[in-house]
Amino acid sequence: MTDRAEDGPGGTTGPTVRIGVLGAARVVKTALTEPAREVPEVTVAALAARDPARAREHAARLGIPRVHDSYDALLADPELDAVYVALPNALHATWGERALRAGKHVLVEKPVTSNENEARQLARAAEETGRIVCEAMHPLYHPLNDRVRELLAAGTIGEIRHAEAHVAFPIPSAKDIRWSYELGGGALMDLGVYALALLRSYVGAGGEEEAALKDVEGALAPVRTKDVDRRVDARLRFAGGATGRIVATMWGWPPLASRCLVEGTAGRLTVLNPLGPQMFHRITVTAGGRRTRERVVKQPSTYACQLRAFARAVTGGEPLRSGPEQFVPAMAAIDAIYRRAGLPPRGAGAEAGRVAGETV
């Protein structure tokens, strides 16, 4: 790590974490380089992609100073402290583990891996190397998530009985890698992981950090391409007795929509746009014959909150909200939902992913 960073918005002086990027994906701008401007604890220092020419073009566009000719060359860079894995889902486990064993801390795009077995392997590599691995589950790090959990923990709607999360983001192009089973595609993998994370966070408020899933009671997952779900609708039961439902779609309307509902013995709480609260959001609580609405601070973005948390975990050992303790059971739940819906869990495409385009 480099010398101490200057004070920034919401930040404190401290060591700067130098991050290298694996992949020339579109998400790098939104999830890393733009929020890094708000997080002085982080420097985005290098990038590598499958196509070196594309890597140079992408790095120039994003203002990343160094480009490596291969993923392995980036992992060997002694001037990097951490790696952001922005590759297709099928490659997250392979390159996340290689980065850990190269001595780097790892921030890996969601979903953290293709399945539970890969998640356990990645968690084991982090333990063996003494490095941090964090899934990029950015909504969990925003003050909106804190406020919802605070309201639920305070008993505002009584004991939680049921929770739902609905997310939609249409992907019309059949060429998008999210429609490829070999690359770990599917609505559940792309959007359902967010819905599941939010439910586990909300149902677990006031107790565990994330509620444990007991059973998948039912799941429907109509496909668009072979074994790739365009929509998933899963009914869940948590260990504490509460039920849950997640609905995620990459097909149809409405676009860019997300909302959550939590029902308790004394009322209900709804959250509008928990995935992008920096754009707009609203919490509505109906209890005791009254309805109240509130908004939490919009800025910084969910991505900036996540990046700052990752930097502080690396430099100061602060706990993460999407580390192995959270992502291993989450991937177990994803596998279980696929099986209940009659589809195979992801994970057959590691080799195919090696030659995939980086367009997530």
UniProtKB/TrEMBL annotation:
* Domain Gfo/Idh/MocA-like oxidoreductase N-terminal per the UniProt entry, residue ranges: 17-134
The entry's family comment says: Belongs to the Gfo/Idh/MocA family.
What keyword terms does UniProt attach to this protein? Oxidoreductase
Q: Which PANTHER family match?
A: OXIDOREDUCTASES (PTHR22604), TRANS-1,2-DIHYDROBENZENE-1,2-DIOL DEHYDROGENASE (PTHR22604:SF105)
Q: Which residues form the GFO/IDH/MocA-like oxidoreductase domain?
A: 147-269
Q: Which InterPro entries match?
A: Gfo/Idh/MocA-like_OxRdtase_N, Gfo/Idh/MocA_domain, GFO_IDH_MocA-like_dom, NAD(P)-bd_dom_sf
Protein name (Swiss-Prot/TrEMBL): Gfo/Idh/MocA family oxidoreductase
